[in-house]
Amino acid sequence: MPQSASARVALYASVGPELTQYDVDVEAAALVRRGTVTLPANVHYAWPHASGRYLYVASSDSAPGAGSVGDKHHVTAFRIDPATGGLTPHANATPGDEVGQPEPIDAGIYGHQVRVSPDNRLAILVTRGHDAAAGRPEEPGALKVFQYRDGLLTEEVSVAPNGGYGFGPRHLDFHPSKPWVYVSLERQNKLDMFAITNGKLSAAPVFRKETLAEPGNIRGRQAAGTVHVHPNGRFVYAANRASSTVQVDGNQMFAGGENTFAVYEIDATTGEPVPIQHVDTCGIHCRTFHIDPSGRMLVAAHIMALRVREGTAIRIVPASLAVFRIDDGGKLDFVRKYDVDVGSRTMFWMGMVPLSQ
User: What is residue 67's predicted lDDT score, i.e. its pLDDT?
Assistant: First the structure.
């Protein structure tokens, strides 16, 4: 549920193995950089404990792309200072024993995200699949849906319209009060809405929408990404990402494409996402974004720097954290951005955490 306007928030953003904390001023739509902690390998993901007192960070020397497996894989627990948001190691925290599963698990192809439903009864694994490439056929995507209780995953159902072909889900988010699930299709640049009825996810999307403003004008690899429902449940936001390059005079240049947010108003009766805005994310390849708990501010994290041609001039668009206000109608207004020097690395993950009172 939305936090009070006075609730304090910390933002954490990773560059390689470094995780940096920023103070969040929601009223001013501003960030202030604070301390940095270093993980054993590149940060891949982080998630706060429900209490808001701890942050769990997954790091690995694996890299995106087939075959880049690596051999350093860690989960690190930090205490979050409730007054400052600063991170300190939480003793020698280690995972407990693995929970043995009573049934075989089909983990699909390219598992990208797993979420537990707000009522704690379903676990949904998002598996993206792969496009056909280099003589290899398409590998289908799916939503792997499990009944979930006490760490046990049972009664697996594979939700894969058309057998998962032409269905490449990447990321999902739940409506805060209705039985609706919003899923971005990375490989198709679509937003699907699925319904949960009697504890089961619908076998096909109830609604499917375009994420791109110009779906007929693809200029390089175009991929839908993160999706988040507004804390008040009235709006949903999806990121469009483009970072393909072409060589110009010996330099790799941005090939063009949409780096935008698609904003939808959610029909309160049906759950249909109705598009109301496409707005530039103000950077290249927004891999992650987050909405503050009060629902008044959105921050977009752009993972990389890239050369861009503007007329006859060439400029470098740096990696950055871009800050937007969210108005009462759900639309985004750009306020400012903070450039981040990532060097040869990427700003792979970013998120906001409300500080415990």
Answer: 60
